[in-house]
Design a protein that fits this description.
The chain has four helices and 18 strands. The protein is an alpha+beta fold and 288 residues long.
């Protein structure tokens, strides 16, 4: 009996280890550090606010919470001036280098702005966005359009700090199925498969005199261009400042989907692991 107890404890620890660090490969945005600015001048004294973890409810149908994985970023942001932002629009999207944490690609705002997460340079300044080993975003993304500017990521100030529990591969506290598929946390990979529903600079980049002039994507005449068919928008809407933070006043232009819940997923995974442990215990009782 004592031998079986040791084996069962080892199995449970093995399974718990697989769950404990799952958020490092499928992260969400922190409740405390979730906003940043779109700076309109070099000192960022004039700005629009972007919420990376907006309130989602029955009136925001189609919007899903931001999720960060090794494949990229999905979900929706809310901008006080640019409205709802889709992080994975048709034909584009924001991707991640899972080793370095460097972001690239484009997100799309319903008011017509493109957000470039890997702009080249702003004069002599280095720009672009990276998630560091502590899950903090740093750098600059470029937002096109009349309400655009430089989106600032700087956790030295809480108001421009975005933080996630996702980590680059080298900063993870446990071996994961994605980096070592033959090892223990493969169990987590199996569980998630069978539960499917579920260059930095300290200086502010120079802001172009004409913000829209830096836009490299089609910004007029609807939302269809080299990125594929996106939600259309009116010229009037595009040129107006939304201003209000009331998210329910805008319709989210997205296909309604079931928003994945990491908490629910972990709970169900825990139940599944208990069932597996009980089966293992029964087998051990019969064999030992």
């Amino acid at each position: 009996m004592e031998k079986r107890n040791y084996i069962l404890i080892a199995v449970l620890l093995f399974c718990v280890a697989s769950i404990t660090f799952a958020s490092e490969t499928s992260g969400t945005i922190s409740d405390s550090y979730k906003t940043t600015y779109i700076c309109k001048n070099e000192t960022c004294s004039t700005y629009g606010i972007v919420n990376w973890k907006p309130t989602l409810n029955a009136q925001t149908t189609g919007a899903t919470a931001v999720t960060i994985t090794d494949s990229g970023i999905t979900g929706w942001l809310w901008g006080s001036e640019i409205g709802w932002v889709n992080m994975s629009p048709t034909g584009s999207g924001v991707t991640i280098n899972s080793t370095t944490g460097v972001l690239s690609g484009y997100a799309y705002a319903n008011t017509g702005s493109w957000i470039n997460f890997s702009p080249t340079t702003s004069g002599a300044e280095s720009v672009g966005v990276t998630i560091d080993s502590n899950g903090k975003f740093f750098g600059w993304a470029y937002v096109s359009g009349l309400n655009g500017g430089w989106m600032k990521f700087d956790c030295s100030t809480a108001s421009t700090c975005i933080e996630t529990d996702w980590r680059p591969v080298g900063a993870r506290t446990a071996v994961t199925a994605s980096s070592h598929p033959s090892n223990g946390p493969l169990i987590w990979s199996i569980i998630t498969d069978i539960l499917p529903f579920l260059g930095k600079s300290d200086d502010t980049p120079k802001i172009p005199g004409d913000i829209a002039a830096g836009d490299t994507k089609s910004d007029t005449g609807g939302g269809s261009d080299e990125f594929g068919n996106l939600d259309t928008y009116s010229t009037t809407t595009h040129k107006s400042t939304i201003g209000s933070s009331d998210q329910t006043n805008l319709n989210v232009k997205a296909t309604p989907t079931v928003s994945s819940s990491k908490t629910l997923m972990i709970a169900l995974a825990g139940i599944l692991l208990v069932i597996i442990a009980m089966i293992v215990w029964k087998l051990l009782f019969m064999l030992l």
